[in-house]
């Protein structure tokens, strides 16, 4: 029987150790990450079937990692955090987390939640992986390695631009409202600022559309939001792990 793959993102070594021991006793394979950088690399290379995520990481907020992960994977994300305020829980769930367990917690409850999320994932057949290569027009997007190219030439997107593009890809086939995009890309504090979406959508069109004034793919639905048109999936398979981005390359792509 194939062992289930868990990515454990936690900066405190003692907590990582006892969670890992508990999961391995359940017959699971555990990959560890101590910060946001390691988490992004491990998620792309290991294709976990479930992610356990701490929010307070030394090099960033775990919610940002969750948003990036949601750009290309549907693996369940269980947040472990000492932040108990309701707004923190809401923010983590709106970033794409599936569940939230406050520290301190009991190992039996943690294991029960892990097993429940894995059962649901198996029932809907997602297994934590998804096709990561997406194409529309002359643009190719690798959602796992954050690489974008047009006519074979690399295109630099800022983190916000990439998140906006990934949100449109995830919602392909439907109109995504301004509010939905603002919550997904910027967070709950920006839900009443639609001009943010307009500015960054214009930036995306300048970089990705042949004629930005008459976009064929990044389409506006007046007074509602945006939709992505003309998408096709790449030839990746569910079992294939995306290539691991180089440290220099990912740092460059994550510059504002």
Automatic annotation (TrEMBL):
It is found in: Cytoplasm. Residues 131-230 form the OmpR/PhoB-type domain. Residues 5-118 form the Response regulatory domain. This is Response regulator. GO terms for cellular component: cytosol; protein-DNA complex. One of its GO terms (biological process) is positive regulation of DNA-templated transcription. Its main location: cytoplasm. It comes from Dyella solisilvae. Keywords: Cytoplasm, DNA-binding, Phosphoprotein, Transcription, Transcription regulation, Two-component regulatory system. The keyword Phosphoprotein applies. The keyword Signal does not apply. Residues 131-230 bind DNA. The modification 4-aspartylphosphate is found at residue 54.
């Amino acid at each position: 029987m194939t062992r289930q793959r868990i990515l454990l993102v936690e900066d405190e070594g003692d907590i990582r150790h006892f969670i890992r021991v508990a999961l391995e006793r359940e017959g699971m394979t555990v990959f560890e990450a101590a910060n946001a950088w390691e988490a992004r690399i491990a998620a792309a290379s290991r294709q976990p079937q479930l992610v356990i995520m701490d929010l307070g990481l030394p090099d960033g907020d775990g919610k940002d990692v969750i948003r990036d992960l949601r750009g290309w994977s549907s693996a369940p994300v269980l947040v472990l955090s000492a932040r108990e305020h309701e707004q923190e829980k809401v923010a983590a769930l709106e970033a794409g987390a599936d569940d939230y367990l406050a520290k301190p917690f009991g190992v039996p409850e943690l294991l029960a939640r892990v097993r429940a999320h894995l059962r649901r994932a198996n029932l809907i057949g997602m297994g934590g992986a998804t096709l990561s290569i997406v194409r529309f027009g002359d643009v190719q997007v690798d959602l796992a390695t954050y690489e974008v190219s047009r006519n074979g030439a690399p295109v630099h997107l800022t983190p916000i631009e990439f998140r906006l593009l990934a949100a449109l890809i995830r919602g392909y086939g439907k109109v995504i409202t301004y509010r939905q995009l603002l919550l997904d890309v910027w967070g709950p504090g920006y839900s009443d600022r639609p001009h943010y979406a307009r500015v960054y959508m214009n930036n995306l069109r300048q970089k990705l559309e042949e004629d930005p004034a008459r976009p064929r793919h990044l389409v506006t639905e007046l007074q509602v939001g945006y939709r992505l048109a003309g998408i096709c999936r790449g030839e990746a398979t569910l079992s294939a792990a995306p290539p691991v981005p180089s440290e220099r390359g990912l740092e460059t792509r994550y510059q504002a």
